[in-house]
Amino acid sequence: MARLTIFIQGLLRWVSILALLAAWQAFAEAHVVSSFLLPAFSTVVVRLYHDVISGDMVLGIVLTLYRAFAGFALASMSGIVIGILIARVPLMRWFFDPLVSVGLPMPKIAFLPVFILWFGVFDASKILMVAFSAVFPVVVASWAAAENVEPVLLWSALSLGAGRRQLLWEVALPASLPQIFTGLQVAMPIALIVEIISEMAMGGEGLGGSIMTEMRFADSPGVFAGILAIAIVGATLVKAMEVIRHRLLIWHPEALAG
Amino acid sequence: MKSTLTRYTPLLLLAVLWEIAPRLGFIDPQTLPPLSAVVRAWIGLLRDGDLATNGLSSLQNLVAGLALGIVVGVVLGISMAWYRPVEVLINPLIRVLYPLPRSALIPVMILWFGLGAASKIAAVFLGCLLPVVIGAFNGARGVEQVLIWSALAAGAKRHQVLWEVVLPAAMPEILAGIRNALALSFILLVAAEFIISQRGMGYLISSYGEGGAYDAMFAGVLTVSAVGFFADRAYLALMGWALRWRG
Amino acid sequence: MGISFREVSHTYRPPRGRPVLALENVSLDVREREFLALLGPSGCGKSTLLYLLGGFLPVEAGTITVGGRPVSGPGPDRGIVFQNFALFPWKTVRQNILYGLEKQRLPRAAREKRAQDLIELVHLRGFENSYPAQLSGGMKQRVAIARTLAIDPAILLMDEPFGALDAQTRALMHEELLAIIRRTPKTVVFVTHDVREAVYLADRVAVMSARPGRIKEIVDTSFGGERGSEIAGTREFTEKVEHLWGLVRNEAIIAQERQGS
C-alpha cells in the first residue's frame, strides 16, 4: 500500500510540473505579455532542440561541464585532504580554522577579477575560480567527518591487528565517506553556479557565455533555451550524484531503509 | 578575548606575508600589490567618494532584494504550509526552480528590466526567495499539532493562530533559511554587478581590474569579502538573540 | 597468559575542564583461562581499566602485564568486544569477520574457511552478505564476537557487550558465550554493571568502588566449576547476588551523592 502511495505522489509531482508548463504555454499564447518577455514554452523547446541538433549547444554544454568538473575535481581532492589534515594535525587546524571560518560566508565570486588577473581570460581562471568556491564545503564536511569517526571503530581495528598507518585508509576514510559525500553534493551545484556566473561575466564559449551573447542580440527564445539547458544539466548532475551516493553507500542505514 | 586573538593569528601571518612577499619580489607586485598599497588605495577610494557611491548602490540593491525575498518568502512558505491549495499551486514552481542556479536567470532579468537597479534587485530577490520559502514551509509544517489545537481551544481564530503560534514556532527554520538567503544575496548581487556593470561594488572591482589599478581592485574585493563576513556574523548574533528562548 | 595489574592509576584529562582521577592504585590478578567480571556503578572506571589492558589508553601510573610482559598498545592477543558493537558498517558480516584474518595474512582458502566456521558458530548462516544496518542488535553483537574470535586471541575483553540488548536476547547471548568459552577456553575480562550477569557468567567477580575506582572486594562465583543454567536458581547463587548487590549499591549511592554535590 505504501508503495502505491509513493508512486501516486511521484505521479502527482510530475502532473503538477506538467500543469505548470501548460499554464506557461497558455499564458504565452494568450499574449498577456509580449512574446519577447516570455516566449511560449513550445518556442523555447523547439529552439533548444535546434540548438542541440546544430551542435552549438552541445559544444557549450561540454565546455561548461568540463570547466565545472575540473574545478569540482580540484576542490574535492584538495578539500578532502585538507579537511582530514585539519582533523588530525593540530598545526593544520590552527592554520586553517580561521581561514575556513572567515572564508565560508564570504561571497567568493568577488574574487573573479583577481583570478582573471592571475590566470588570464581562458579556462584556467574559470576552473580555479570554481575550485576556490567549491572547496569550502568539502573541507568543512571532511573535517567534521574525520573528527567524528567513532574511536571504538579505530580501537577494534587496532586490536584486530591493523597497523596505525592502515587506520586512515581502512577505517577512517570509509567511516567518513557518507559525510564527505554530502559535502561533495553541496559543492557540485556551487561549481556549476560559479562556472555559469564566470562565463556570463567573461563571455566567450560555454552555456553562460552563449546566453549573454543571445541576450545582447535580444534573442529572447535563445536566452530561455539556454536557461532550460542549464536547468536540465543542473538537475541531471544532482540526480547523478544521488545515484552515485546510493551505489557507493549501499551499506548505509538510509540506503537500506529505502 | 585572548582566545579570539590567537584563533585569528594565522590571518595576521597571512597579512604580513601579503605585505612582505611582493615587496621582496617573491611575488610580482603587479599581480599582488603589497597590503599597504591596497590599504592606501582603499583610503583613496573612500576619500574620493568612489567607495561611498558604489558601496551605497550595492547596499541599497542588496537590502531591497533581500527584504523583498524575506517578506515574500515567509508569507509564501507559511501560506503553503497552512493552505493546501497554495501548496499545490506553488510546489511545482519551487521544484522546477530549485535545481536551477538562480544566477542563470540574470540575463532574463536584464531582458525584462534592462541594465539597471531593477534587474539587480530582481536577481537578488530570486536568489533569496527559495531558501526562505523552504525554511518557512518546513518550519510551519513542523509545528506540533498540539500547539495549534491548544490555541484554537483557547478561543483563537485560525488566522490568529497563524500569527501567534505558527510563525514563532517556525522561527528557527525561518531564521536558518534567511541566513542562507543572506549569503546568496551577496553572491547574486556581485554576480549581477559584474554582468550589468554601471554601478556597485562588483562594477568597482571589475572596472579597476580592467583599468589596471589592481591595488584599488583588491581594495574592493577585500571590502566586499569583509562586509559579507561581518554581515553573516552579525546575523548569527541576531539569530542567537532572537532564539534565546530555545536555550 | 595471566594478567596482572599493579598499582594502576589513571587520570582522565578532558579537553575542557579539570582532570579527574578515574582509577586509583588498582591491583588485581587474572589467572589464565579465568572468567573475571569487573562489576561496579557507572563511572567507576571499570571500562577505563579494560581500555588500559587493551592498550587503547596509555598506562601512565602502575604496570599492567600480560604473560609477564608489560602492555604497550593494542594487539591481536587481546581481542575486544564493545557495547555498541563497533562493526565496520561498510563491510558485510563476512567481510567484518575476515578483517582480522586478513591482517594475519592467512592464505585465502584458510581465511574463508575460518570465517565460515565462525559464522556457523554464532548461528548467522545466511547472513554472510548482509550489512550491519540490516541486522538486529543481538545479531550485530554475534558478528562482533565472531570477528574478535576469528583471530583466536588468548584474552577476550568485553565492555558491557550485552548492555544494548533486550533481556531475552541477553539471556540467549549468555548461553552462547558460555558455550563458546567451553569449546575454546580463553581468559575473559568482562565489564558489567549487571550483578546477576556477573555472577552467572564469571568465575570471580571484582567489585569496584565509585570514582576514583579501586578494587573493593573480589568474590568467588565459580560454583565448584560446573555451570549450567540451573545454577541461577540455587541458594548459593542468590546469596552471592545479594551480597554483591549490596556492595554495588553502596558504591552507587556514594557516586550519586558525589555527583549531586
| Largest interface summary | A-B, 49 and 50 residues
Low-confidence stretches of chain C: none
Percent range for β-strand residues of chain C: 15-25%
Give the strand tally of chain C.
Answer: 10
What's the story with the biggest beta sheet of chain A? none
What is the distance, rounded to the nearest whole angstrom, between the alpha carbons of the first and last residues of chain A?
A: 15 Å
Per CATH, what is the topology of the domain at 3-77 and 157-165 and 187-260 in chain C? Rossmann fold
Shape of chain A: flat
Please give the largest β-sheet of chain C.
6 strands, mixed
pLDDT averaged over residues of chain A: 89
The N- and C-terminal alpha carbons of chain C lie at a distance of 43 Å
CATH architecture of chain A: Orthogonal Bundle
Count of alpha/pi helices of chain C? 7
The overall number of domains of chain A is 1
Number of strands of chain A: 0
Stated plainly, the CATH topology of chain A is called MetI-like fold
In helices, the fraction of residues of chain C equals 25-40%
Provide keyphrases for this structure.
heterotrimer, A: MetI-like fold, 11 helices, 83% helix, C: 261 residues, alpha/beta, Rossmann fold, four-stranded antiparallel β-sheet
